[in-house]
Design a protein that fits this description.
Layout: H1 21-28, H2 51-74, H3 81-100, H4 114-136, H5 146-150, H6 157-176
Helix pairs in contact: 2-6, 3-6
C-alpha cells in the first residue's frame, strides 16, 4: 500500500471558504498538470479575496474608524465648538448614508403597531417636556437636565469614548432599520 497525500485521519485541517482539498492534493501530486479549483488560465490561484472576506475587512475598517473617532471626540470639551461640529458632521454623514447610500436593512422582529408607536411617542414626549421645562427653570441641581445628571459620569475620557461609541452604534442600527 502506498502513502496517501493529504492529512492523516484524525488530524485537524483548517480549510478556508472555497478551498478544495481534492484540488490541493492534485496540485501536490506528481501529476501537477491539473490545476487546483479556483485557478485561473495560468494555473495560479486568484489573489482577490472572496466577497465575504472583503466585506468583513471593510466592516473591521469601519469599526476601527468608529473607535478612533469616538476616542478623538471624547477629548473635546463639552459644549465646545469642536464637539458641536463633531455632532453635526456625524449627523450629516448619517443622513447622507441613510438617504443617499442606504445600507442593507436588518429585519425587524415584528412590525410596529399603533399602540407601540404611541407608547414610545408618549415616553419621548414626556422626556422632552421635562428637559425643556428643566432647561427653562435654569438647569440647576433642583431642576437638572440630562446633561447635568450624566456630566460626572462622562468626566473620564475612556467612559466618554465608550458612550460616543455606543451613540454611533445605536445610530447605525437605526439607519439600517
Amino acid at each position: 500500500m502506498g502513502s496517501v497525500a493529504g492529512p492523516r485521519v484524525g488530524s485537524s485541517v483548517s480549510l478556508a471558504q472555497g478551498d478544495d482539498p481534492v484540488g490541493a492534493d492534485r496540485a501536490a501530486s506528481p501529476d501537477a498538470s491539473v490545476a487546483p479549483a479556483g485557478a485561473g488560465p495560468d494555473g495560479q490561484l486568484a489573489a482577490a479575496m472572496p466577497r465575504s472576506t472583503a466585506s468583513g475587512v471593510l466592516s473591521w475598517a469601519w469599526a476601527v474608524l468608529a473607535v478612533v473617532y469616538a476616542w478623538v471626540v471624547a477629548g473635546f470639551a463639552p459644549f465646545s465648538l469642536a464637539s458641536s461640529v463633531a455632532v453635526f458632521v456625524t449627523g450629516a454623514v448619517v443622513l447622507v448614508v441613510a438617504f443617499g447610500f442606504a445600507p442593507p436593512r436588518i429585519a425587524t422582529a415584528k412590525p410596529l403597531t399603533k399602540a407601540g408607536v404611541g407608547a414610545w411617542a408618549a415616553i419621548l414626549g414626556a422626556f422632552s417636556l421635562q428637559e425643556v421645562l428643566n432647561f427653562t427653570l435654569g438647569s440647576t441641581r433642583a431642576h437638572p437636565t440630562l446633561s447635568i445628571l450624566v456630566a460626572p459620569l462622562l468626566e473620564d475620557h475612556l467612559v466618554k469614548a465608550v458612550a460616543v461609541l455606543i451613540w454611533l452604534g445605536v445610530g447605525w442600527v437605526l439607519v439600517r432599520r
